[in-house]
Design a protein that fits this description.
The protein has 14 helices and 17 strands. It is of the alpha/beta class and 428 residues long. β1 and β2 form a beta hairpin. Bound molecules: pyridoxal-5'-phosphate. Pyridoxal-5'-phosphate (PLP) binds next to α3 and α4.
Length: 428
């Protein structure tokens, strides 16, 4: 079996080291000095601990968009200089994203609105009769788009995920697709995607990896991991300008029904319509989100230039501090599928005895200026499983959790403020 190459070797609860010195500076985010009102009318610096929902904009991303705006013009349609420049920037963004995920030279790179749009696009392009195998742990964006799917229960350990996928794929005839999230948006835990890709291919299946929560935190190499498709969102990658992407094998995408029908997707329209069979124009009808694509590419460039070692080490230092702080508070329980020591990205979900998740989130915001997410995080089956709940409630404050998530721009003070705020709440 392949090694789980994306798993970090740094233990999740590593001793708290001194802040990491980086050789190249980690870029700043916009809004680092945002002040927000708290109870009593005071202003405090905002502690944004909700990166997994949407990350703040990186300064180099904002700069790239600002630089592109004066020449902003139509793409793929105009002979004017500004149009040519904007088209070149848009196509360059595609190359940058391709390199960022280590795609094969002939992979398609299709700009979408977000991850949800990307998974739905692929769902519409599956060959007739394709069966999708998907775990109940998925975000709804990866759980719901499929016409015909086999749902697998949350596996008790990573090897069980591989075994369950193996057994399910073995029992399916015809085209098959395994869909799996690389890093859980609920627990942050990393999934054994290399091993799952290996199993999928052994059964003649393909694999789609939902990388929405992975790419802001870890390097992803589609070719090295032998993945068929990956999807992710710009707004979680410090590029909140409305673009996402689907990257992967061309054939299904070239044969699939054009996602949107309109200008740009067609070669000619007469009595018959001749659609492009290159996946990019075929599925990107209408004027695309050029600035979104430029922003997404700028984020890829900025993360690559900073270097993953520095980013990962700083994130692991802060998440270890956050987790051990929360673990030291009686009545606080962290949600985890595979245990404390399983590698994870900078996401922690937890419950606080005696308080609903909504109450905790409101106190954190209203009294401490801390932004977190509460609810089931668009992963209802998984959160219910982790909480041992069977109710059908949604984002109503019952059977839900609080999620803190970090990234570039998170400081030790933010993390400490959250831990002390939860401790104060519990001690009231
Ligand atoms: C793992 C995962 N997949 C997919 C999505 C959907 O992303 P978007 O809302 O950008 O489509 C999310 C969003 O939270 C996510 O965390």
């Amino acid at each position: 079996m392949s090694t789980l190459t994306i798993f970090s070797s740094v233990p999740a609860r590593a001793a708290e080291a001194a802040p990491v010195a980086t050789s190249r500076p980690i870029p700043a985010v916009l809004g680092a000095d945002l002040e927000v009102p708290v109870k009593g009318g005071r202003l405090v610096g905002y502690a944004n601990l909700d990166y997994a929902a949407s990350a703040p904009c990186l300064e180099p991303v904002s700069a790239a968009v600002t630089a592109a705006l004066p020449a902003y013009s139509s793409v793929h349609r105009g002979a004017g200089y500004a149009s040519q420049l904007t088209t070149a920037r848009y196509e360059q963004a595609r190359h940058t994203v391709r390199a960022f995920v280590g795609a094969r030279p002939d992979d398609a790179v299709i700009f979408t609105r977000n991850t949800t749009d990307a998974t739905n696009l692929l769902a519409r392009c599956l060959p007739a009769g394709t069966t999708t195998v998907v775990f109940d742990t998925e975000h709804h964006a990866s759980l719901l788009p499929w016409q015909k799917s086999v749902r697998l229960a949350p596996p008790a350990f990573p090897g069980e995920a591989v075994r369950a996928a193996d057994a399910a794929l073995a029992g399916i005839d015809g085209p098959k697709l395994l869909v799996v999230t690389a890093a859980s948006n609920v627990t942050g835990e990393l999934w054994p995607i290399a091993a799952l890709a290996h199993v999928a291919h052994r059964h003649g299946a393909r694999i789609l990896v939902d990388a929405a929560q992975l790419v802001p935190h870890r390097r992803l190499n589609l070719t090295a991991l032998d993945l068929d498709y990956v999807a992710f969102s710009g707004h979680k990658l410090y590029a909140p300008f409305g673009a996402g992407v689907l990257v992967g094998r061309r054939d299904w995408l070239a044969d699939g029904e054009p996602y949107l029908k309109g200008g740009g997707a067609v070669r000619s329209v007469g009595d018959d319509t001749e659609w492009h069979d290159d996946p990019e124009p075929r599925h990107e009808a209408g004027t695309p989100n050029v600035l979104g694509a430029i922003a997404l590419a700028a984020a890829c460039d900025a993360l690559t230039a900073t270097g993953w070692t520095a980013l990962v080490r700083e994130e692991e230092r802060l998440i270890a501090r956050l987790r051990s702080g929360l673990a030291s508070i009686e009545g606080v329980r962290e949600l985890s599928l595979w245990g404390d020591d399983h590698p994870r990205v900078g996401i922690v979900s937890f419950t606080v005895d005696g308080y609903s998740a909504r109450e905790v989130a409101e106190v954190l915001s209203g009294e401490y200026g801390i932004g977190v997410r509460d609810g089931k995080f668009c992963a209802h089956p998984f959160v219910r499983h982790l909480l041992g709940e069977t109710d059908g409630g949604c984002e109503d404050g019952t059977a839900s959790a609080v999620r803190a998530s970090i990234g570039i721009g998170t400081t030790q003070e933010h993390v400490d403020r959250l831990v002390e705020a939860v401790r104060d709440l519990v001690n009231r």
